[in-house]
Amino acid sequence: MEKTYTVAQVADLLSVSKQTVRNWDTSGRLKSKRHPSNSYRLYNESNILTMDREGVLQGNKSPVREVPIREYNIIELFAGGGGLAVGLEKAGLSCIALNEIDKDSCATLRLNRPNWNVIEEDIKKVDFALYEGKADIVTGGFPCQAFSYAGKKLGFDDVRGTLFYEFARAVREIKPLICIAENVRGLLNHDNGKTIEGMISVLDELGYKMLPPKILKAIFYGVPQKRERILIVGIRKDVDINYEFPIAHKEHYTLKDALKAGRLYSTDVPDSNGMLYAKSKISVLDLVPPGGYWRDLPIEIQKDYMKQSFYLGGGKTGMARRMSWDEPCLTLTCSPAQKQTERCHPDITRPFTVREYARIQTFPDTWEFAGSKTSQYRQIGNAVPVNLAKEIGYTLVKALNDHYRKELVEHEQLSCIG
Questions:
Q1: Which of 144, 334, 344, 416 is catalytic?
Q2: Is residue 357's pLDDT more than 90?
Q3: Can you say whether residue 243 is alpha, beta or left, with left for phi > 0 and alpha for psi between -120 and 50 degrees?
Q4: Measured in Å, how far apart are the chain's first and last C-alpha atoms?
Q5: Helix H or strand E segment including 94
Q6: 169 forms bridges with which residues in the sheet?
Q7: How far is CA 412 from the centre of its chain?
Q8: What is the H or E stretch that residue 403 is in?
Q9: I need a surface site. Which of 117, 131, 163, 192 has the fewest CB within 10 A?
Q10: Which of 247, 223, 243 shows the shortest CA–CA distance to 59?
């Protein structure tokens, strides 16, 4: 029997809104059938296959899974609470140094990996020349600071004073084979694309062939969350390395997979502390059904809760939002109770707990977080989802394996000639 998808699932797969899917249905661009019990719209896989821009449904390739043929070392900048580092470690890569200025994040890294070399210091004060030639890869999710754009290209000195400059300085001093910068999706369009164009020109000046930036949607890489990150990859120009971005998975996970025993975890989410809503907010969110938001409230309560936002444009779909078990979670924020980006538990009128937050980001249950409850939420909310990082790690291993295999073959051919 052919697989079917709901409106929400089609919207995620095609990276459009649910309303766009409904509009396509009404216009005949997509054909639906009705669920026999609840009359919800369902779409056959064959009907949406031709619109699958990410290739998720086609499944022409399998995700990369290779073991490193030698030790590959990584230096991570702006390491935070460890999401990227843990994922890369799961793929077989070795972190030889992690730089982070936040004391709680550093405590988290040391608590879980006492053997890691955690450099707790302002990145501006770190001498990365000590690591020249010792790392195959430099990674970093630098905080996005805007900088002015001058002319068609930016040089290294033009971005001095920004945290991106410090990332570029580390790359210049370490000279890794591959450099990877990850950031929020919004960087792609910041200043009409000039900001990211400037960053690429700086790394090009430092001797790196830059690949076109790629937006990775976490739901396609084993993460039960609609988070998106942009990846900027550079290959040192004096080496022949072919890097390919991760292949989207055909299997997707929901909030139920994150918090209940099943496909992602063998047990239900462990109990833990968490934030609470004020009584006034609870009385409002109690009226919102799973998967619903402020528009599901009675009109007078909408007006009272939304205040002036009620009369402004835009969907404001994060306000008074309750998650659904059957969909991936919306992108987690650093604070679970913010009015603009509420992520209410499907059954209980409360924010997600710390461990629920960690599950949605695909951290292992054994990964502990140091610091206050507020700090723990911030560390988790800022992290790269572990499973997404793992998929990136596998592609890095594949690229480096291919590179060193090719070098070995060339060396053997030269030896035969000699």
A1: 144
A2: yes
A3: beta
A4: 61
A5: strand 94-100
A6: none
A7: 41
A8: helix 386-417
A9: 192
A10: 247
Domains, the chain: 4-51 (1.10.1660.10), 73-250+387-411 (3.40.50.150), 255-382 (3.90.120)
Q: Long-range contacts for 285-291 (Cβ within 8 Å, ≥24 apart)?
A: 285/320, 285/322, 285/342, 285/344, 285/349, 286/349, 288/320, 288/321, 288/322, 288/344, 289/322, 290/322, 290/323, 290/324, 290/325, 290/346, 290/347, 291/8, 291/322, 291/323, 291/324, 291/326, 291/327
* Dihedral sign of CA atoms 202, 215, 178, 161 in order: positive
Measure the CA–CA gap between 23 and 132, rounded to whole angstroms.
55
Catalytic residue list contains 144: yes
The full DSSP string for 135-155 is -SEEEE----------SS---
pLDDT in tens, 371-384: 999 999 999 999 99
pLDDT at 307 over 90: no
3-state secondary structure of 208: strand
Helices (H) and strands (E) in the chain, counts: 13, 11
Distance (Å, whole) CA 30 – CA 43: 8
Q: Which two tokens stand for residue 298?
A: 């009675």
CA-based max dimension of the chain: 86
Cα separation, 225 vs 325, whole angstroms: 12
Whether residue 119 has pLDDT greater than 80: yes
Secondary structure class of 278 (helix, strand, coil): coil
- Residue 350 gets which letter from DSSP? S
Strands 94-100 and 118-120: parallel
d(CA 117, CA 414): 39
Residue with tokens 């055909």: 250
Q: In the structure encoding, which two tokens stand for residue 19, read together?
A: 């309303």
Judged by average pLDDT, the poorest of 22-31, 104-113, 385-394 is 22-31
In degrees and rounded to multiples of 5, residue 151 shows phi and psi of 75, -160
Q: Six-digit token pair at 25?
A: 């249905």
